[in-house]
Amino acid sequence: MxxxxxxxxxxxxxxxxxxxPAVLLGHDCASRDAGERAISRLLDRGHEGEEGVxxxxxxxxxxxxxxxxxxxxxxxxxxxxxxxKEPADLADFAALPVDGADxxxxxxxxxxxxxxxxxxxxxxxxxxxxxxxxxGSAASLAELFDRFEAGEAGIxxxxxx
Length: 161
What we know:
Elements: E1 7-10, E2 22-28, H1 34-44, E3 47-48, E4 54-55, E5 62-68, E6 71-79, H2 80-83, H3 87-93, E7 98-99, E8 102-114, E9 121-122, E10 125-126, E11 129-134, H4 141-149, E12 153-158
Parallel strand pairs: 2-11
Antiparallel strand pairs: 1-2, 3-4, 5-6, 6-8, 7-8, 9-10, 11-12
């Protein structure tokens, strides 16, 4: 699904006031979309490190950058095996498309925008994608930052390739 209204390239003052631009995706944890519901399930199974900080394994949830001309896309994927906990899950998530880059993974979310931004690389690793997890319909970026500051939204850092 092309949903460029929920993808931004901007500094994230709440995390690093002096930082450069980051790629952010809005994620509605109340969505009825199968891909977004799967993301919510995977975020709930994060591994807690220090109090209030949860870590995702790249196998659990990861992102991939794709460029076509002047369009930058971010594809969020997971392993289909992680989604199936109960028989009802098979029906819920069966329609998720197989990832063309890896047959063992499924596409949960795809967003793209027109930009000349090139994600930074460090030691051969692409810049992570920030997933803003919030309750409700797509909000403006300023509203999402306000929700994060108020503790009403979370930010997940996704490894990217």
